[in-house]
Amino acid sequence: MIHEIINFLQVNPNLGTAGQPRRDQFTEIKAAGYEVVINLALNTSTDAILDEQALVTGLGMDYIHIPVVWEEPTVRDLERFFKVMAQNQARKVFVHCAMNMRVSAFIFLYQVLQLGVPAEIARQALLQIWEPNHTWQTFIEDRLNLR
Questions:
Q1: Burial of residue 115, with CB atoms counted within 10 A of its CB: 0-12 exposed, 13-18 middle, 19 or more buried
Q2: What does residue 39 show for φ and ψ, rounded to 5 degrees?
Q3: Residues 6+ away with beta carbon under 8 Å from 1
Q4: Could you tell me the residue ranges of all domains in the chain?
């Protein structure tokens, strides 16, 4: 079941997030109707699948890799993520990283800065996954302060 993927969270009907799926779980992602897989983890992240792109595209889904360095998320990474999300807004999208921490922070910022979701509502999904550490909390606050 897709709900067995580590830290899986159904954000809305067209957006699911999680930590790193196992190889066999990509079939479940496809069966759940997802059309696009976005990976924010590095190829060196915990349990990374080096041929993930071939695996995902072989199942008929689109694959986008935006490697975000855990210790140093950048505005450039976030802007690329926003662009990819905008390009795929009419599709069912599955976004993952190693543990759904990078993803939950990016999704929080996407919801608030791009979709206009109130921060207190968007924060509920973020906090279901984790309480951001200093690096990520600073990154989030810096982005929110620029709006």
A1: exposed
A2: -115, 120
A3: 28
A4: 2-145
- What confidence tens digit (pLDDT) does each residue in 60-112 have? 999 999 999 999 999 999 999 999 999 999 999 999 999 999 999 999 999 99
Phi, psi of 26 (to 5 degrees): -65, -30
Sign (positive or negative) of CA dihedral 135, 138, 141, 147:
negative
pTM above 0.90, yes or no: yes
- 27 sits in which H/E element: helix 25-31
2-145: CATH homologous superfamily? Protein tyrosine phosphatase superfamily (3.90.190.10)
The residue ranges of DSSP E strands in the chain, in sequence order, are: 9-12, 15-18, 36-39, 62-65, 93-96
How far, in Å, CA of 1 to CA of 141, rounded?
35
Which residue is listed with tokens 């662009």?
83
